[in-house]
Amino acid sequence: MLKKKSKPGGKNKYRHIFVSNIPVGLYRNTSGPKGHFISGNPAIVKMFGYDSVEEFMNISVSDIYIDPKERKDFSERLITKGQVSDINLRLKKKDGTMIWASVSARAVYNKAGQIKYFDGMVEDITLRKQMEKQLEEARKTAETSNRTKSMFLANMSHEIRTPMNAILGFAQLMQKDRTLTAEQRKHLEIISHSGEHLLTLINDILDMSKIEAGRMTFTPVTFDLHTLLLDIEMMFRVRTDAKGLLFKVEGMNEIPEFVVTDEGKVRQILINLLGNAVKFTDKGSILLQVGMEKKEEQIFFIAEIIDTGTGISRDDIPRLFHAFQQSSTRTQTIEGTGLGLAISREFARLLGGDIEVRSKVNEGSCFRVKIKIQETKNKPVTAAPEKHVIGLQPGLNLYRILVVDDKPENRLLLSEILRAVGFETRESADGSEAISEFQTWKPHLIMMDIRMPAMDGYEAIRRIRAIPEGAGIPIIAVTASLWEEDRQKIKESGANLYIRKPFREYEVFDAIGTCLGVKYVYEEKDKIQPTQTDEIPLTGESLKVLPEDTVSRLREASISLDFDRLMEIIENITPQFPQLAEQLKKLAADFQFDTLLKLISEKSA
Question: Which of 124, 157, 186 is the last residue of a domain?
Fold first, then answer.
Protein backbone atom coordinates (compact mmCIF):
# COMPACT_ATOMS: atom_id res chain seq x y z
CA MET A 1 0.00 0.00 0.00
CA LEU A 2 1.34 3.33 -0.98
CA LYS A 3 1.37 6.11 1.60
CA LYS A 4 -0.01 9.48 0.60
CA LYS A 5 2.74 12.02 0.50
CA SER A 6 2.35 15.02 2.70
CA LYS A 7 2.65 18.45 1.23
CA PRO A 8 5.82 20.24 2.28
CA GLY A 9 5.32 21.84 5.71
CA GLY A 10 1.70 20.66 5.89
CA LYS A 11 1.49 19.77 9.60
CA ASN A 12 3.64 22.69 10.69
CA LYS A 13 1.51 24.98 8.58
CA TYR A 14 -1.71 23.98 10.35
CA ARG A 15 -0.03 24.08 13.75
CA HIS A 16 1.17 27.61 13.01
CA ILE A 17 -2.34 28.71 11.99
CA PHE A 18 -3.80 27.22 15.17
CA VAL A 19 -1.23 28.78 17.49
CA SER A 20 -1.64 32.16 15.77
CA ASN A 21 -5.41 32.23 16.21
CA ILE A 22 -5.95 30.61 19.60
CA PRO A 23 -7.58 33.24 21.90
CA VAL A 24 -5.28 32.58 24.89
CA GLY A 25 -1.63 33.53 25.21
CA LEU A 26 0.98 30.81 24.61
CA TYR A 27 4.64 31.24 25.44
CA ARG A 28 7.96 29.42 25.92
CA ASN A 29 10.68 30.73 28.18
CA THR A 30 14.04 29.62 29.51
CA SER A 31 14.55 28.65 33.13
CA GLY A 32 16.57 30.44 35.78
CA PRO A 33 16.36 33.83 37.55
CA LYS A 34 17.13 35.70 34.30
CA GLY A 35 14.87 33.65 32.10
CA HIS A 36 13.68 35.21 28.84
CA PHE A 37 10.95 34.39 26.33
CA ILE A 38 11.87 32.13 23.44
CA SER A 39 8.54 32.41 21.64
CA GLY A 40 4.95 33.63 21.98
CA ASN A 41 1.77 33.72 19.93
CA PRO A 42 0.03 36.92 18.75
CA ALA A 43 -2.55 36.64 21.56
CA ILE A 44 0.07 36.99 24.31
CA VAL A 45 1.77 39.85 22.49
CA LYS A 46 -1.55 41.68 22.31
CA MET A 47 -2.42 40.76 25.89
CA PHE A 48 0.70 42.47 27.24
CA GLY A 49 0.54 45.44 24.86
CA TYR A 50 3.64 44.83 22.75
CA ASP A 51 3.89 45.68 19.07
CA SER A 52 5.35 42.42 17.80
CA VAL A 53 6.49 38.93 18.77
CA GLU A 54 10.08 40.06 18.32
CA GLU A 55 9.63 42.92 20.80
CA PHE A 56 8.00 40.56 23.29
CA MET A 57 10.90 38.08 23.05
CA ASN A 58 13.40 40.81 23.90
CA ILE A 59 12.01 41.26 27.44
CA SER A 60 12.92 39.30 30.54
CA VAL A 61 10.31 37.11 32.24
CA SER A 62 10.71 39.21 35.38
CA ASP A 63 9.55 42.29 33.41
CA ILE A 64 5.92 41.13 33.40
CA TYR A 65 5.61 40.48 37.16
CA ILE A 66 4.18 43.03 39.56
CA ASP A 67 5.52 41.28 42.66
CA PRO A 68 8.93 39.51 42.50
CA LYS A 69 7.82 37.24 45.35
CA GLU A 70 4.91 35.97 43.27
CA ARG A 71 7.34 35.08 40.45
CA LYS A 72 9.70 33.32 42.88
CA ASP A 73 6.84 31.28 44.43
CA PHE A 74 5.44 30.38 40.99
CA SER A 75 8.85 29.29 39.65
CA GLU A 76 9.68 27.18 42.71
CA ARG A 77 6.31 25.44 42.54
CA LEU A 78 6.70 24.77 38.79
CA ILE A 79 10.23 23.40 39.19
CA THR A 80 9.22 21.21 42.14
CA LYS A 81 6.06 19.74 40.58
CA GLY A 82 6.98 19.95 36.91
CA GLN A 83 3.51 21.24 36.05
CA VAL A 84 1.00 23.73 37.48
CA SER A 85 -2.53 24.73 36.43
CA ASP A 86 -4.71 27.81 36.78
CA ILE A 87 -2.47 29.86 39.08
CA ASN A 88 -3.82 33.40 39.48
CA LEU A 89 -1.05 36.00 39.16
CA ARG A 90 -0.86 39.78 38.95
CA LEU A 91 1.11 40.61 35.78
CA LYS A 92 2.24 43.85 34.13
CA LYS A 93 1.65 45.12 30.61
CA LYS A 94 4.16 47.16 28.62
CA ASP A 95 2.59 50.45 29.78
CA GLY A 96 2.67 49.32 33.43
CA THR A 97 -1.05 48.48 33.63
CA MET A 98 -1.81 45.50 35.82
CA ILE A 99 -3.83 42.53 34.60
CA TRP A 100 -5.00 39.43 36.43
CA ALA A 101 -3.93 36.26 34.63
CA SER A 102 -4.62 32.56 35.05
CA VAL A 103 -1.36 30.77 34.19
CA SER A 104 -0.74 27.10 33.47
CA ALA A 105 2.76 25.79 32.64
CA ARG A 106 4.88 22.66 32.39
CA ALA A 107 8.59 21.95 32.43
CA VAL A 108 10.19 20.30 29.38
CA TYR A 109 13.24 18.13 30.14
CA ASN A 110 16.26 16.93 28.07
CA LYS A 111 17.51 13.35 27.96
CA ALA A 112 19.66 14.01 31.03
CA GLY A 113 16.56 14.99 33.03
CA GLN A 114 17.45 18.67 33.11
CA ILE A 115 14.91 21.43 32.42
CA LYS A 116 15.31 22.77 28.88
CA TYR A 117 12.51 25.35 29.01
CA PHE A 118 8.95 25.98 30.15
CA ASP A 119 5.82 25.97 28.02
CA GLY A 120 2.91 27.97 29.30
CA MET A 121 -0.56 29.30 28.68
CA VAL A 122 -1.94 32.64 29.93
CA GLU A 123 -5.60 33.72 30.12
CA ASP A 124 -6.53 37.31 30.93
CA ILE A 125 -9.08 37.11 33.77
CA THR A 126 -9.04 40.81 34.72
CA LEU A 127 -12.72 41.29 33.82
CA ARG A 128 -13.71 38.22 35.83
CA LYS A 129 -11.72 39.45 38.82
CA GLN A 130 -13.37 42.84 38.57
CA MET A 131 -16.79 41.20 38.51
CA GLU A 132 -15.87 39.05 41.50
CA LYS A 133 -14.75 42.16 43.35
CA GLN A 134 -18.00 43.92 42.48
CA LEU A 135 -20.01 40.90 43.64
CA GLU A 136 -18.06 40.75 46.87
CA GLU A 137 -18.63 44.45 47.45
CA ALA A 138 -22.33 43.96 46.69
CA ARG A 139 -22.45 41.05 49.13
CA LYS A 140 -20.81 43.16 51.85
CA THR A 141 -23.19 46.03 51.08
CA ALA A 142 -26.15 43.65 51.31
CA GLU A 143 -24.89 42.26 54.61
CA THR A 144 -24.44 45.79 55.94
CA SER A 145 -27.93 46.65 54.70
CA ASN A 146 -29.38 43.56 56.38
CA ARG A 147 -27.62 44.42 59.63
CA THR A 148 -28.95 47.98 59.38
CA LYS A 149 -32.44 46.69 58.63
CA SER A 150 -32.25 44.23 61.51
CA MET A 151 -31.22 47.03 63.86
CA PHE A 152 -34.05 49.19 62.55
CA LEU A 153 -36.58 46.38 62.99
CA ALA A 154 -35.28 45.65 66.49
CA ASN A 155 -35.74 49.32 67.34
CA MET A 156 -39.16 49.38 65.69
CA SER A 157 -40.20 46.27 67.59
CA HIS A 158 -39.25 47.87 70.89
CA GLU A 159 -40.62 51.32 70.12
CA ILE A 160 -44.00 50.01 68.94
CA ARG A 161 -44.54 46.96 71.14
CA THR A 162 -43.60 48.89 74.31
CA PRO A 163 -46.44 51.46 74.05
CA MET A 164 -48.75 48.69 72.80
CA ASN A 165 -48.02 46.92 76.08
CA ALA A 166 -49.39 49.92 77.99
CA ILE A 167 -52.41 50.34 75.69
CA LEU A 168 -53.52 46.71 75.79
CA GLY A 169 -52.51 46.26 79.44
CA PHE A 170 -54.51 49.17 80.81
CA ALA A 171 -57.46 48.18 78.60
CA GLN A 172 -57.38 44.76 80.33
CA LEU A 173 -57.26 46.42 83.75
CA MET A 174 -60.13 48.77 83.02
CA GLN A 175 -62.36 45.98 81.68
CA LYS A 176 -62.46 44.51 85.20
CA ASP A 177 -64.28 47.58 86.49
CA ARG A 178 -67.87 46.51 87.29
CA THR A 179 -69.07 50.12 87.25
CA LEU A 180 -68.35 50.63 83.54
CA THR A 181 -71.28 51.69 81.39
CA ALA A 182 -72.06 49.83 78.17
CA GLU A 183 -70.70 52.77 76.19
CA GLN A 184 -67.40 52.77 78.12
CA ARG A 185 -67.07 49.02 77.71
CA LYS A 186 -67.68 49.44 74.00
CA HIS A 187 -64.89 52.02 73.77
CA LEU A 188 -62.50 49.72 75.64
CA GLU A 189 -63.34 46.88 73.26
CA ILE A 190 -62.54 49.15 70.32
CA ILE A 191 -59.17 50.03 71.87
CA SER A 192 -58.34 46.35 72.47
CA HIS A 193 -59.52 45.21 69.05
CA SER A 194 -57.65 47.97 67.23
CA GLY A 195 -54.51 47.32 69.29
CA GLU A 196 -54.59 43.61 68.54
CA HIS A 197 -55.05 44.36 64.83
CA LEU A 198 -52.06 46.72 64.84
CA LEU A 199 -50.01 44.11 66.67
CA THR A 200 -50.89 41.53 63.99
CA LEU A 201 -49.63 43.86 61.26
CA ILE A 202 -46.41 44.52 63.21
CA ASN A 203 -45.88 40.79 63.70
CA ASP A 204 -46.37 40.18 59.95
CA ILE A 205 -43.62 42.67 59.12
CA LEU A 206 -41.30 41.23 61.77
CA ASP A 207 -42.01 37.67 60.58
CA MET A 208 -41.00 38.71 57.07
CA SER A 209 -37.82 40.35 58.33
CA LYS A 210 -36.93 37.24 60.34
CA ILE A 211 -37.44 35.12 57.23
CA GLU A 212 -35.19 37.40 55.15
CA ALA A 213 -32.53 37.38 57.85
CA GLY A 214 -32.69 33.58 58.21
CA ARG A 215 -33.88 33.90 61.81
CA MET A 216 -37.23 32.15 61.54
CA THR A 217 -37.27 29.01 63.68
CA PHE A 218 -39.09 25.68 63.38
CA THR A 219 -40.81 24.56 66.59
CA PRO A 220 -42.26 21.04 66.21
CA VAL A 221 -44.99 19.95 68.63
CA THR A 222 -47.49 17.10 68.81
CA PHE A 223 -51.02 18.32 68.07
CA ASP A 224 -54.46 17.18 66.90
CA LEU A 225 -54.62 17.95 63.18
CA HIS A 226 -58.34 17.11 63.01
CA THR A 227 -59.16 19.57 65.80
CA LEU A 228 -57.08 22.30 64.14
CA LEU A 229 -58.97 21.85 60.86
CA LEU A 230 -62.36 21.79 62.62
CA ASP A 231 -61.47 25.00 64.46
CA ILE A 232 -60.53 26.66 61.17
CA GLU A 233 -63.71 25.36 59.54
CA MET A 234 -65.85 26.90 62.29
CA MET A 235 -63.89 30.15 62.05
CA PHE A 236 -64.52 30.53 58.30
CA ARG A 237 -67.97 29.00 57.96
CA VAL A 238 -69.66 32.04 59.46
CA ARG A 239 -67.72 34.31 57.10
CA THR A 240 -68.61 32.23 54.03
CA ASP A 241 -72.25 31.98 55.12
CA ALA A 242 -72.34 35.77 55.48
CA LYS A 243 -71.24 36.11 51.85
CA GLY A 244 -73.56 33.35 50.66
CA LEU A 245 -70.67 31.05 49.67
CA LEU A 246 -70.68 27.26 49.80
CA PHE A 247 -67.82 26.11 52.05
CA LYS A 248 -66.76 22.47 52.35
CA VAL A 249 -63.90 20.61 54.01
CA GLU A 250 -63.12 17.22 52.45
CA GLY A 251 -60.65 14.41 53.11
CA MET A 252 -60.52 14.48 56.92
CA ASN A 253 -60.69 10.66 56.98
CA GLU A 254 -57.58 10.47 54.81
CA ILE A 255 -55.23 12.17 57.27
CA PRO A 256 -53.83 11.10 60.68
CA GLU A 257 -55.32 12.58 63.83
CA PHE A 258 -52.11 13.32 65.75
CA VAL A 259 -49.06 14.70 63.95
CA VAL A 260 -45.78 16.44 64.73
CA THR A 261 -44.77 19.71 63.06
CA ASP A 262 -44.99 23.43 63.85
CA GLU A 263 -48.69 23.83 64.69
CA GLY A 264 -48.66 27.63 64.80
CA LYS A 265 -47.18 27.94 61.32
CA VAL A 266 -49.58 25.36 59.84
CA ARG A 267 -52.50 27.28 61.35
CA GLN A 268 -51.24 30.61 60.01
CA ILE A 269 -50.68 29.22 56.50
CA LEU A 270 -54.23 27.85 56.28
CA ILE A 271 -55.81 30.97 57.79
CA ASN A 272 -53.88 33.22 55.39
CA LEU A 273 -54.89 31.19 52.33
CA LEU A 274 -58.52 30.73 53.35
CA GLY A 275 -58.72 34.40 54.31
CA ASN A 276 -57.60 35.35 50.79
CA ALA A 277 -60.09 32.90 49.27
CA VAL A 278 -62.99 34.48 51.19
CA LYS A 279 -61.76 38.01 50.47
CA PHE A 280 -61.56 37.49 46.71
CA THR A 281 -64.63 35.26 46.20
CA ASP A 282 -68.02 36.94 45.96
CA LYS A 283 -70.05 34.03 44.60
CA GLY A 284 -69.73 30.28 44.23
CA SER A 285 -67.75 28.12 46.61
CA ILE A 286 -64.59 27.53 48.61
CA LEU A 287 -63.26 24.02 49.14
CA LEU A 288 -60.57 22.97 51.63
CA GLN A 289 -59.46 19.53 50.48
CA VAL A 290 -56.92 17.71 52.66
CA GLY A 291 -54.97 14.51 52.24
CA MET A 292 -51.61 12.77 52.62
CA GLU A 293 -48.74 12.03 50.30
CA LYS A 294 -45.99 9.51 51.01
CA LYS A 295 -42.62 9.77 49.30
CA GLU A 296 -40.01 7.18 50.25
CA GLU A 297 -39.95 7.41 54.06
CA GLN A 298 -41.42 10.92 54.27
CA ILE A 299 -45.05 11.85 54.94
CA PHE A 300 -46.58 15.09 53.69
CA PHE A 301 -49.83 16.80 54.66
CA ILE A 302 -51.54 18.21 51.58
CA ALA A 303 -54.15 20.97 51.66
CA GLU A 304 -55.76 22.48 48.57
CA ILE A 305 -57.77 25.69 48.90
CA ILE A 306 -59.95 25.95 45.81
CA ASP A 307 -62.17 28.98 45.18
CA THR A 308 -64.34 30.39 42.41
CA GLY A 309 -63.15 33.95 42.94
CA THR A 310 -61.53 36.66 40.83
CA GLY A 311 -58.55 34.52 39.90
CA ILE A 312 -55.01 35.62 39.08
CA SER A 313 -53.51 36.43 35.70
CA ARG A 314 -50.64 34.34 34.36
CA ASP A 315 -48.35 37.38 34.41
CA ASP A 316 -49.08 38.01 38.10
CA ILE A 317 -48.45 34.46 39.35
CA PRO A 318 -44.59 34.64 39.32
CA ARG A 319 -44.58 37.67 41.67
CA LEU A 320 -47.57 36.58 43.74
CA PHE A 321 -45.42 35.43 46.66
CA HIS A 322 -43.23 38.55 46.72
CA ALA A 323 -43.46 40.68 49.83
CA PHE A 324 -45.73 43.75 49.77
CA GLN A 325 -47.28 42.81 46.42
CA GLN A 326 -50.77 41.85 45.36
CA SER A 327 -52.13 40.61 42.06
CA SER A 328 -53.31 43.34 39.68
CA THR A 329 -56.64 41.51 39.52
CA ARG A 330 -56.90 41.75 43.31
CA THR A 331 -56.35 45.45 43.88
CA GLN A 332 -59.95 45.89 44.97
CA THR A 333 -58.73 45.64 48.56
CA ILE A 334 -55.93 47.45 50.35
CA GLU A 335 -56.33 45.65 53.67
CA GLY A 336 -53.31 44.09 55.33
CA THR A 337 -49.61 44.34 54.63
CA GLY A 338 -49.36 42.35 51.40
CA LEU A 339 -47.20 39.85 53.27
CA GLY A 340 -49.63 36.97 53.85
CA LEU A 341 -48.69 34.86 50.83
CA ALA A 342 -44.96 35.60 51.11
CA ILE A 343 -44.95 34.55 54.77
CA SER A 344 -47.09 31.48 54.07
CA ARG A 345 -44.75 30.16 51.38
CA GLU A 346 -41.66 30.73 53.54
CA PHE A 347 -43.39 28.97 56.44
CA ALA A 348 -44.26 26.03 54.18
CA ARG A 349 -40.65 25.77 52.97
CA LEU A 350 -39.39 25.97 56.54
CA LEU A 351 -41.71 23.02 57.30
CA GLY A 352 -40.15 20.95 54.50
CA GLY A 353 -42.73 21.72 51.82
CA ASP A 354 -43.96 24.48 49.54
CA ILE A 355 -47.04 26.24 48.12
CA GLU A 356 -48.05 26.07 44.46
CA VAL A 357 -50.83 27.95 42.69
CA ARG A 358 -53.02 27.41 39.64
CA SER A 359 -55.43 30.12 38.59
CA LYS A 360 -57.45 31.69 35.79
CA VAL A 361 -58.89 35.19 35.80
CA ASN A 362 -62.61 35.19 36.63
CA GLU A 363 -62.60 31.41 37.13
CA GLY A 364 -60.88 31.01 40.49
CA SER A 365 -57.69 29.74 42.09
CA CYS A 366 -56.22 26.65 43.69
CA PHE A 367 -53.45 27.02 46.27
CA ARG A 368 -51.79 23.68 47.05
CA VAL A 369 -49.92 23.46 50.35
CA LYS A 370 -47.45 20.66 51.02
CA ILE A 371 -45.96 20.26 54.51
CA LYS A 372 -43.76 17.48 55.90
CA ILE A 373 -45.24 15.85 59.02
CA GLN A 374 -44.59 12.95 61.37
CA GLU A 375 -47.48 10.69 62.30
CA THR A 376 -47.72 9.77 65.99
CA LYS A 377 -50.00 7.85 68.34
CA ASN A 378 -49.15 10.15 71.25
CA LYS A 379 -51.89 12.55 72.29
CA PRO A 380 -50.84 16.19 72.63
CA VAL A 381 -50.54 17.78 76.05
CA THR A 382 -53.38 20.30 76.33
CA ALA A 383 -52.75 23.66 77.96
CA ALA A 384 -54.77 24.57 81.04
CA PRO A 385 -57.47 27.19 80.39
CA GLU A 386 -56.56 30.77 81.25
CA LYS A 387 -57.80 31.73 84.75
CA HIS A 388 -58.19 35.19 86.21
CA VAL A 389 -56.14 35.84 89.39
CA ILE A 390 -57.91 37.93 92.07
CA GLY A 391 -55.54 37.44 95.01
CA LEU A 392 -52.92 35.40 96.85
CA GLN A 393 -53.91 32.39 98.89
CA PRO A 394 -54.34 33.25 102.62
CA GLY A 395 -51.40 32.62 104.91
CA LEU A 396 -48.67 33.52 102.42
CA ASN A 397 -45.93 36.00 103.29
CA LEU A 398 -46.06 39.50 101.83
CA TYR A 399 -43.90 39.31 98.71
CA ARG A 400 -41.92 42.34 97.58
CA ILE A 401 -41.46 42.78 93.83
CA LEU A 402 -39.22 45.41 92.23
CA VAL A 403 -40.50 46.67 88.85
CA VAL A 404 -37.76 48.10 86.60
CA ASP A 405 -38.64 49.95 83.37
CA ASP A 406 -37.61 53.30 81.88
CA LYS A 407 -41.21 53.99 80.74
CA PRO A 408 -43.41 55.29 83.60
CA GLU A 409 -46.59 53.88 82.01
CA ASN A 410 -45.12 50.37 81.86
CA ARG A 411 -43.94 50.55 85.49
CA LEU A 412 -47.40 51.72 86.52
CA LEU A 413 -49.11 48.94 84.55
CA LEU A 414 -47.06 46.15 86.15
CA SER A 415 -47.34 47.70 89.60
CA GLU A 416 -51.14 48.00 89.29
CA ILE A 417 -51.47 44.39 88.16
CA LEU A 418 -49.29 43.12 91.03
CA ARG A 419 -50.68 45.32 93.80
CA ALA A 420 -54.24 44.39 92.84
CA VAL A 421 -53.68 40.80 93.96
CA GLY A 422 -51.60 41.53 97.10
CA PHE A 423 -47.96 41.95 96.09
CA GLU A 424 -45.96 44.89 97.45
CA THR A 425 -44.09 46.79 94.73
CA ARG A 426 -41.50 49.47 94.20
CA GLU A 427 -40.32 50.98 90.93
CA SER A 428 -36.96 51.84 89.35
CA ALA A 429 -36.40 53.75 86.12
CA ASP A 430 -33.08 52.18 85.05
CA GLY A 431 -30.47 49.56 85.89
CA SER A 432 -28.49 51.72 88.32
CA GLU A 433 -31.60 52.57 90.34
CA ALA A 434 -32.56 48.90 90.35
CA ILE A 435 -29.23 47.87 91.87
CA SER A 436 -29.52 50.49 94.64
CA GLU A 437 -33.16 49.57 95.34
CA PHE A 438 -32.27 45.89 95.44
CA GLN A 439 -29.55 46.47 98.02
CA THR A 440 -31.71 48.64 100.33
CA TRP A 441 -35.21 47.09 99.94
CA LYS A 442 -34.29 43.38 99.48
CA PRO A 443 -37.14 42.39 97.13
CA HIS A 444 -38.16 38.75 96.69
CA LEU A 445 -38.28 39.09 92.88
CA ILE A 446 -37.33 41.59 90.16
CA MET A 447 -39.26 42.32 86.94
CA MET A 448 -36.45 43.71 84.76
CA ASP A 449 -37.00 45.56 81.49
CA ILE A 450 -34.16 44.73 79.12
CA ARG A 451 -33.82 47.80 76.93
CA MET A 452 -33.19 50.96 78.95
CA PRO A 453 -30.88 53.99 78.56
CA ALA A 454 -27.76 54.43 80.71
CA MET A 455 -27.57 50.90 82.17
CA ASP A 456 -29.69 48.31 80.36
CA GLY A 457 -31.28 45.20 81.84
CA TYR A 458 -28.48 42.86 80.74
CA GLU A 459 -25.85 44.79 82.67
CA ALA A 460 -28.14 45.32 85.68
CA ILE A 461 -28.81 41.57 85.92
CA ARG A 462 -25.10 40.75 85.69
CA ARG A 463 -24.23 43.26 88.43
CA ILE A 464 -27.00 42.05 90.74
CA ARG A 465 -25.84 38.47 90.24
CA ALA A 466 -22.32 39.56 91.21
CA ILE A 467 -23.59 40.74 94.63
CA PRO A 468 -23.58 37.82 97.13
CA GLU A 469 -27.24 38.23 98.13
CA GLY A 470 -28.23 38.70 94.45
CA ALA A 471 -27.01 35.32 93.27
CA GLY A 472 -30.25 33.54 94.08
CA ILE A 473 -32.94 36.20 93.61
CA PRO A 474 -35.46 35.34 90.86
CA ILE A 475 -35.31 37.80 87.96
CA ILE A 476 -37.93 37.87 85.20
CA ALA A 477 -36.77 39.73 82.09
CA VAL A 478 -39.37 41.79 80.21
CA THR A 479 -38.61 42.43 76.54
CA ALA A 480 -40.28 43.73 73.41
CA SER A 481 -37.86 41.80 71.18
CA LEU A 482 -38.91 38.81 69.08
CA TRP A 483 -35.38 37.77 67.99
CA GLU A 484 -34.23 34.32 69.11
CA GLU A 485 -30.66 35.51 69.72
CA ASP A 486 -32.02 38.07 72.20
CA ARG A 487 -33.72 35.27 74.08
CA GLN A 488 -30.40 33.42 74.30
CA LYS A 489 -28.66 36.62 75.39
CA ILE A 490 -31.26 37.11 78.15
CA LYS A 491 -30.68 33.57 79.36
CA GLU A 492 -26.90 34.07 79.37
CA SER A 493 -27.26 37.32 81.36
CA GLY A 494 -28.65 35.37 84.32
CA ALA A 495 -32.43 35.91 84.10
CA ASN A 496 -34.59 33.02 85.31
CA LEU A 497 -37.45 33.58 82.86
CA TYR A 498 -38.62 36.18 80.35
CA ILE A 499 -41.96 37.49 79.10
CA ARG A 500 -42.60 39.52 75.97
CA LYS A 501 -44.41 42.79 75.55
CA PRO A 502 -47.28 43.22 75.15
CA PHE A 503 -47.95 40.61 77.83
CA ARG A 504 -51.13 39.15 79.27
CA GLU A 505 -51.84 39.18 82.99
CA TYR A 506 -51.77 35.41 83.24
CA GLU A 507 -48.27 35.34 81.71
CA VAL A 508 -47.01 37.65 84.47
CA PHE A 509 -48.65 35.61 87.24
CA ASP A 510 -47.54 32.27 85.75
CA ALA A 511 -43.91 33.47 85.62
CA ILE A 512 -44.02 34.79 89.20
CA GLY A 513 -45.68 31.57 90.38
CA THR A 514 -42.91 29.52 88.77
CA CYS A 515 -40.16 31.62 90.38
CA LEU A 516 -41.64 32.10 93.88
CA GLY A 517 -43.94 29.10 94.17
CA VAL A 518 -46.87 31.33 95.22
CA LYS A 519 -50.46 30.05 95.05
CA TYR A 520 -53.27 32.22 93.76
CA VAL A 521 -57.00 32.67 94.33
CA TYR A 522 -58.86 32.63 91.02
CA GLU A 523 -62.16 34.25 90.10
CA GLU A 524 -64.94 31.77 89.64
CA LYS A 525 -65.79 31.26 86.00
CA ASP A 526 -69.43 32.24 86.32
CA LYS A 527 -68.41 35.54 87.92
CA ILE A 528 -66.08 36.65 85.16
CA GLN A 529 -68.92 37.60 82.83
CA PRO A 530 -72.05 38.10 84.99
CA THR A 531 -75.31 37.51 83.18
CA GLN A 532 -78.80 38.63 83.93
CA THR A 533 -80.93 35.70 85.03
CA ASP A 534 -84.01 37.21 83.42
CA GLU A 535 -82.34 37.78 80.05
CA ILE A 536 -83.88 35.78 77.21
CA PRO A 537 -81.23 34.08 74.99
CA LEU A 538 -80.78 35.84 71.67
CA THR A 539 -81.81 33.73 68.66
CA GLY A 540 -82.84 34.27 65.08
CA GLU A 541 -86.43 34.15 66.29
CA SER A 542 -85.71 37.22 68.45
CA LEU A 543 -85.10 39.35 65.34
CA LYS A 544 -88.52 38.63 63.81
CA VAL A 545 -89.96 41.58 65.75
CA LEU A 546 -87.84 43.94 63.65
CA PRO A 547 -88.94 45.42 60.32
CA GLU A 548 -87.42 43.78 57.24
CA ASP A 549 -85.63 46.96 56.16
CA THR A 550 -84.00 47.22 59.62
CA VAL A 551 -82.82 43.60 59.41
CA SER A 552 -81.51 44.28 55.89
CA ARG A 553 -79.54 47.32 57.11
CA LEU A 554 -78.16 45.27 60.04
CA ARG A 555 -76.96 42.63 57.55
CA GLU A 556 -75.27 45.20 55.29
CA ALA A 557 -73.50 46.92 58.21
CA SER A 558 -72.30 43.55 59.57
CA ILE A 559 -70.98 42.33 56.22
CA SER A 560 -69.07 45.58 55.68
CA LEU A 561 -67.85 45.52 59.32
CA ASP A 562 -69.16 49.09 59.71
CA PHE A 563 -69.28 49.37 63.51
CA ASP A 564 -70.50 52.96 63.64
CA ARG A 565 -73.34 52.29 61.19
CA LEU A 566 -74.32 49.16 63.12
CA MET A 567 -74.49 51.03 66.43
CA GLU A 568 -76.56 53.78 64.81
CA ILE A 569 -79.14 51.22 63.60
CA ILE A 570 -79.27 49.57 67.04
CA GLU A 571 -79.73 52.96 68.74
CA ASN A 572 -82.74 53.62 66.49
CA ILE A 573 -84.52 50.46 67.71
CA THR A 574 -83.63 50.98 71.40
CA PRO A 575 -86.79 52.93 72.36
CA GLN A 576 -89.10 50.22 70.98
CA PHE A 577 -87.02 47.09 71.74
CA PRO A 578 -84.64 48.02 74.64
CA GLN A 579 -83.72 44.48 75.74
CA LEU A 580 -83.08 43.26 72.16
CA ALA A 581 -81.06 46.41 71.44
CA GLU A 582 -78.90 45.84 74.53
CA GLN A 583 -78.16 42.27 73.41
CA LEU A 584 -77.28 43.45 69.91
CA LYS A 585 -75.01 46.14 71.36
CA LYS A 586 -73.08 43.48 73.27
CA LEU A 587 -72.50 41.53 70.05
CA ALA A 588 -71.36 44.69 68.28
CA ALA A 589 -69.12 45.76 71.18
CA ASP A 590 -67.44 42.33 71.05
CA PHE A 591 -67.10 42.67 67.24
CA GLN A 592 -69.13 39.49 66.82
CA PHE A 593 -70.27 40.39 63.32
CA ASP A 594 -70.22 36.71 62.34
CA THR A 595 -72.61 35.77 65.13
CA LEU A 596 -74.96 38.60 64.20
CA LEU A 597 -75.00 37.50 60.56
CA LYS A 598 -75.75 33.94 61.63
CA LEU A 599 -78.74 35.15 63.69
CA ILE A 600 -79.99 37.16 60.71
CA SER A 601 -79.68 34.06 58.50
CA GLU A 602 -81.63 31.99 61.07
CA LYS A 603 -84.31 34.68 61.18
CA SER A 604 -84.68 34.53 57.38
CA ALA A 605 -84.78 30.72 57.29
Answer: 124
